[in-house]
Amino acid sequence: MAAAAGFLFLVLLTIQVNRVTAVTPIKNLSIARSTTQTVTSATTESSSQTSTEYSEDAQEQAAVSDEVNEDDFPTVSLNDWSLALVGPKNKIVSEIAQEDLGKLSNGYLVDKRIVSAYEELAEAAKVAGHPLVMVSAYRSVEYQQEIFDANVNSLIRQGNTKEEAIRITKLTFTEPGYSEHHTGLAIDVIDEDWYQNHTGELLNEGFGVTDGGKWLQAHAREYGFIIRYPKGKHDITQIDYEPWHLRYVGVEVATYIEEHEVTFEEFLDEAKEHITRKEAELSYHELADPLQEDWIFTNSLTRNQENSQRAQEELLMSGGDLFAKNVFSQTKEVKK
Ligand SMILES: [Zn+2]
């Protein structure tokens, strides 16, 4: 029985270590930002295939980096309503029902679950001296289709072919079904000062360097909103910098995204990895015999301490961290 449980545990460890070492470049970027250690995926890859002292160190460092990142990563489900992904490459799956829309005090419609978050943001902006002016909020697919078609028709009247008119329209209008505004979780806002004094188009990236734009960049997260399309991230978001386009994701996720300077897309990728890893840990805890578990933890800790000469408390972190350590120490044993 004990031997069978031990074997099962090692199988699970092997599965788990493969997951842990399969660190993507995106993840490493955020790890590098959040810690002083910079373990590249190349290092991690090579260390999983050799057994030198150096590579074992690199493996332990990789595990520690992961743990640091794990600490402040929000607990989310990819099915959370506030994490819906709609954009140029992600057509909306199902539109928000009319009864789920709520009216803001300025008359605009948004998902009713974010009405109070926006009102609080607007109030704080006002207190800080940057009263907000809303330019756009929820837009139905039907409305997007209307304004898209109107532009196409106007271009056709100006002598363009239909194909040409559609091509030009796509440069400035989001295709119906592909706008984040369909979700009711996105808004376009500027401040009163920009609205009154700026000449030219209202939604211009110059707003980002104004006091109001800077205030939003620094404080929107406190109310659950992110600046959805940051500067220099077009490759990932497919959309240029838009300091006015705010997206609700909830306070915890917004804080993580802004502090780690990742895009929403990158956050979702990281979330998928975290969830996969957590599921692997959970299935291990469900299957393993608790007594066997204790035996393995104790043995592994002793070995870890002997090998690395690190203080016991350094190795005694949370359960998840401990598990990550076990994964590496046990796997080394298997390979030898
Ligand atoms: Zn927008």
Automatic annotation (TrEMBL):
SUPFAM superfamilies xrefs: Hedgehog/DD-peptidase
Top-level taxon of origin: Bacteria
Ranges of biased composition (kind: Low complexity): 37-53
Statement: the UniProt record of this protein carries the keyword Cell cycle: no
The D-alanyl-D-alanine carboxypeptidase-like core domain, residue ranges: 110-250
InterPro entries: DD-CPase-like, VanY-like_core_dom, VanY/YodJ_core_dom, Zn_M74/Hedgehog-like
Region (Disordered): 37-58
Upper taxonomic lineage: Bacteria, Bacillati, Bacillota, Bacilli, Lactobacillales
Keyword tags: Signal
Official protein name in the record: M15 family metallopeptidase
Signal peptide: 1-22
Signal recorded as keyword: yes
